[in-house]
Amino acid sequence: MNKAMTSEQMVARLRDGMTIGIGGWGPRRKPMALVRALLRSNLRDLTVVAYGGADVGMLCAAGKVKKLIFAFVSLDFIPLEPYFRRAREGGAIEVMEIDEGMLLLGLKAAAMRLPFMPTPVGLGTDVLKYNPDIKTIVSPYADGRELVAMPALKLDAALLHVDNADARGNCEIQGPDHYMDDLFALAANETFVSCEQLVDSSHFHDGHAPRSILWPRSATAGVIHQPGGAHPSSCMPHYGFDAPHFQEYVATAKAPDGWENYFSTYIAGGEADYLEKIGGISHVRALPAPMY
Amino acid sequence: MTAGDYTLADLMINAAAEIWRNDGEILATPIGVIPRLAAALCVRTFNPDLLITDGESHLVGEPVPVGPRGDYRPKVESWMGYAKVFDFVWSGKRHALVAPAQIDRFGQANISCIGDYRKPKAQMLGVRGLPGNSISHANSFFVPVHSRKVFVAGQCDMVSSIGYNRERLPQGYTFEDIDIRSIITDLCVLDFSGPDRQIALRALYPGVTAEQVQENTGFPLHIPADVQRIEPPSAAQLAIIAALDPHNLRAQQIKGNPRAGAAS
After folding, report:
1. Do A180 and B57 touch (CB under 8 A)?
2. Do B123 and A84 touch (CB under 8 A)?
3. Which of A277-291, B106-120, B181-195 bottoms out in mean pLDDT, i.e. has the lowest?
4. What is residue B155's three-state secondary structure?
5. Is A41 in contact with A90 (CB distance < 8 Å)?
6. How far apart are CA B13 and CA B8, in angstroms?
7. What's the rounded Cα separation, in Å, for the pair B36 and B169?
8. How far apart are the first and last CA of chain A?
9. Residue B231 carries which DSSP code?
């Protein structure tokens, strides 16, 4: 099966009101080209599940988010995401704010087709107060302890960005961390993956590459060839995140019509135009690794 | 300031390093420059078995200096991707040092938001891993400015971590299941050794009084008769700190970062 497609074809497979998981972590290996495709679309009322960064901020800024399921939204070197803040402080979005591990367990439960995963995480905190839909249970064993029944976070779609993929849907993450991408892929009804390189399947025949494939191709619905597709987030070892671009993006939140200007400058014209505006793929590939 | 002098930041790093002294072979998770330097100092002085990270996705065999570090390459020991962190969290083999925006009398902390939850006055990061940390393993807090804004009078606006609060104890749990160790501030070190885990004043920096600490805390502290004095760092410890922070990033973490004494 040839799963190669364009981001427009991906958008055509999505519907208003869907629950969409977004891989990566904060400013790292976010499928930003696919997020930009959502931003250009008419899709609305989305429930977004993410270890959030600018992906969440931009979707909030564009009014695409009905509900956000999250543990944090941060650009890391810039701790607070401005458009996420604005959406929260304006009461513009519903939220399910949970612990990072609860998010992992919710995806895991969905991947295992379980209704919930038991965990003590969240007990004693306002996570349960503000999420009355999250129930607790009591251990049926001798300990008799209370546990949170973290509900499955079933995704209609997951969006991910990887290094290499073949058209059959085998996806390789060479970078230092795959984050929860494998769980997002398995928790989703359909997973769409953008890749730096679309490789021939023979790429995986030898060496260690197969060890970097973390979900079966049967869990991949579409492959979108998009070099630089994680920009302005990082895709190590190919490029670090674009700190000046993030700073420019964050500054737009203080300007009148800041988001509208950012959108029309960078996003409206499509992905080829985006790459050209930011200085081309050579600019992206030259971005250094972040250092703290 | 002359060579051999030390600052408040150095004192705080030295005090914070103590939290992992007797932890043995567990994962230290220090968030922020001073907590990171404290864990590094701890590894270099009294607990070489502590597990530490490069702040990305590896465990390292020696502390990574903070800030730009030229050609230095972290001495990677092992891989620890984000999902693997939970192996430590949920096994209990971890001790985190984080800086919450609010801490209340129960040791409950807040990093989520300030004000009304539905429409917060200030949205911050979100609860991140605090709920899980607090019910799974040892935790300490770092407070760069000891004030009533941080040590709030009531409960935290958004209780992100479980504390020693009987009203919130889950079924089958006791205070023994919660392990909040120390709070390192710019005035003192607090712990939970008061009656019924009341927050207590354990030690003061030179020149700081118990009254000053209480005045800047929004709830009553337990003040024992034997409040200790925080030991200044030795010349050897100062040299370790300076080597791990060659750009003196620690000075920017503390307002004014006053000189605190001269190394003996």
Report:
1. no
2. yes
3. A277-291
4. coil
5. no
6. 9
7. 31
8. 43
9. P
- Going by C-alpha positions, the residue among A79, A72, A74 that lies closest to residue A102 is A72
Model confidence pLDDT, tens digit, residues B168-177: 999 999 999 9
Q: What value does the mean pLDDT take over residues B19-31?
A: 98
Q: Please judge whether B79 and A126 are an interchain contact, meaning their C-beta atoms are less than 8 angstroms apart.
A: no
Q: Is the pLDDT of residue A24 over 60?
A: yes
Contacts of A25 in chain B (CB under 8 A): 82
Long-range contacts of A134-140 (CB under 8 A, 24+ apart): A134/A98, A136/B170, A138/B171, A138/B172, A139/B172
Task: Indicate if the pLDDT at residue B3 is higher than 60.
Answer: no
Question: CA of B123, closest CA in chain A: separation in Å?
Answer: 5
Q: Look at the pTM and tell me if it is higher than 0.95.
A: yes
User: Please, what is the average pLDDT of chain A?
Assistant: 97
Give which of B187, B231, B192 is closest to B210, Cα–Cα: B187
Tokens of A15: 């519907």
Q: Which of A27, A23, A29, A35 is nearest to A75 (CA)?
A: A27
Parallel, antiparallel, or unpaired for β B122-123 and B113-114? antiparallel
B58 vs A contacts (CB less than 8 Å): 176
Distance CA B76, CA B92 (A): 23
Q: Best residue in B103, B124, B125, B168 to probe A by mutation, most A CBs within 10 Å? A: B125
Nearest chain B Cα distance for residue A272, angstroms: 31
Domains and CATH numbers, chain B: 5-254 (3.40.1080.10)
Which residues of chain A make contact with B56, given a CB cutoff of 8 A? 176-177
Q: What distance in Å separates the CA atoms of residue B239 and residue B213, rounded to the nearest whole number?
A: 30
- CA B106-B111-B113 angle, to 5 degrees, is 105
pLDDT in tens, B84-136: 999 999 999 999 999 999 999 999 999 999 999 999 999 999 999 999 999 99
Domains assigned to chain A: 7-98+155-282 (3.40.1080.10), 115-151 (no CATH)
* Residues B132-148, mean pLDDT to the nearest whole number: 98
Contact A125 B122 (CB under 8 A): no
Angle at B35 between CA B33 and CA B36, to 5 degrees: 60
